[in-house]
Amino acid sequence: MNIKLIIMDMDGTLLDKDSKITPDNHEALIEAQKKGIRLVLASGRSYKSLLKFGKELKMDEYNGYFIGVNGAAIYDCSNDTNEVIKQLDKENIKEIFDEAMRYDVEIMGVLDSTIYDYIPETVLEAKKKYRTDNNIADDVPMTAGSFSFIADQRKGYDHIYYIDSPEDIHEKVNKICIANESEILSPVYEDLSLKFKDKYNIAKTTPRWLECNPKGISKGDTIIKLAQKLGIGKDEMIVFGDGENDLSMFDVVDYPIAMGNAMDTVKKAAYDITLDNNHDGIAYYLKKKHII
Q: Angle at Cα 266 formed by Cα 190 and Cα 86, nearest 5°?
């Protein structure tokens, strides 16, 4: 392998269960950059919530990039610029919300630093019990995370607003996220994927989390644009991922690597499988294949 670009999903891939970069992964990725290999963090998150990780990895010094919001934006770490490619407008927001609100699910309109959160009454009551049962502090917002019923989203978003309908959102959003337990979310995924297959990209990033982006916007689409800009071929890129929103990346590189904790659909599409995100899967593979 003659790798010039290492592309990594964040949650469940580069980050461990505590949402941190492990020391081994950190050391390996710094070493890769010293060898002239560029890094790309490819996430459903916005660039603002990726900045601390980019700084930790010294990506501003080594000319790295973020592919944010599942491909809807590209951030250049070296010159601190963020290019927004496409967002969901008021009509898109209403259309997706109206369909998803037929189900007992939480629905979020998400921007770089803002979440507009719709929580049905039944879900809200379940969250109150969950907060009590899990000793979650009262000041933590009720908003879900991709891995949990309640997650402290204040770490990545400065503003969280609770809404009663999509009409309460008065601006374009980067994406719409839908959350609940896997058995509740599965029919929603099937419905939206069928109904909107020609209009939106809908991906299941974890068993309890869906993300909706405009059609033609995916991590893979944006990797192609970035690779063309940098003059890098598909055989010179390696991708690490764990969720279905990473599959578009797997389609555009020769070396897609699934984490040990990846969804089965991701493992089936992979060139190879490494260790899980809690056991330095990225560092392990880079060393195993003598990329560093």
A: 65
Nearest to 160 by CA among 139, 181, 180: 139
User: How many CB atoms are located within 10 Å of the residue 172 CB?
Assistant: 15
State pLDDT tens for residues 192-205: 999 998 999 898 88
Instruction: Answer whether 70's CB lies under 8 Å from 137's CB.
Output: no
Residue 223 to residue 42: CA distance in whole angstroms: 9
Mind listing the pLDDT tens digit for each residue in 72-122? 899 999 999 999 899 999 999 999 999 999 999 999 999 988 999 999 999
Please, what's the largest Cα pairwise distance for the chain? 54
**In this structure, is the dihedral angle defined by the CA atoms of residues 91, 93, 99 and 102, taken in order, positive or negative?**
negative
- Lookup: tokens for 31: 């070493």
Nearest-10 crossing angle of helices 281-288, 23-34: 40
Query: Kind and range of the H or E element at 67?
Result: strand 65-68
User: What local confidence, expressed as pLDDT, does residue 147 receive?
Assistant: 87
Q: Is the pLDDT of residue 156 over 90?
A: no
Give the position of tokens 């916005």.
46
| 3-class DSSP assignment, residue 154 | helix
Helix (H) or strand (E) holding 16: none
pLDDT tens string 207-248: 899 999 888 888 999 999 999 999 999 999 999 999 988 999
Q: Return the closest-CA partner of residue 174 out of 67, 99, 266, 64.
A: 67
What span, in angstroms and rounded, lies between the C-alpha atoms of 228 and 208?
Answer: 34
CA-CA distances (angstroms) from residue 274 to 65, 256, 270? Answer: 23, 11, 10
